[in-house]
Amino acid sequence: MSLSALELSQIRSDADDYLPDTCTLQTVARTADAYGGWSEVWANTHTSVDCRLAIMPMSRPEMIDGAELSSTTRWLLAVPYNQAITAEMRCVHDGVTYEIEAVEDQQSHRPSRHAYLRRAD
């Protein structure tokens, strides 16, 4: 069953009602330094982006980090269906910076876009 353009538009409008927060999406600019490396500067590319950030119900398996057992929590970010977002960006939400690990782009009639995040420490 396929959706009409009007039905899809209504679904997307309804989905936007469930984006209660805002965030900033940043892109990186790299500049070569004199030592063969580079420096990074993150620029606020998209500001006041409607979003919803939710902790994912499952996290990655526990890992051993410096002889300590640790678990890495992941978050799910929802933004409007037509928002530009890539895995090369960062997200700043409520003063906390997150690295974007992946973006789901496989849906043909998506009501919103989803990205998987991890906290940048």
Question: How would you describe this structure to a colleague?
Answer:
The protein is mainly beta. The chain has a single domain, classed as Thrombin, subunit H (Beta Barrel). Helix content is 10%, strand content 53%. The protein has one helix and eight strands. The strands form two sheets. It has a six-stranded antiparallel barrel. The N and C termini lie far apart (45 Å).
Coarse shape: elongated
Mean pLDDT: 86
What's the CATH topology label? Thrombin, subunit H
Low-confidence stretches: none
Count of helical stretches = 1
Radius of gyration, whole Å:
17 Å
Biggest β-sheet: strands ordered side by side in the sheet:
1-2-5-8-7-6
Number of domains: 1
- Fraction of helical residues: under 10%
Short account of what is shown:
With 121 residues, the chain is mainly beta.
Helix/strand layout:
Elements: H1 5-16, E1 21-32, E2 38-55, E3 63-65, E4 68-70, E5 74-80, E6 90-93, E7 96-104, E8 112-119
Antiparallel strand pairs: 1-2, 1-6, 2-5, 3-4, 5-8, 6-7, 7-8
Key descriptive features of the protein:
single chain, 121 residues, mainly beta, Thrombin, subunit H, 6-stranded antiparallel β-barrel, 1 helix, 8 strands
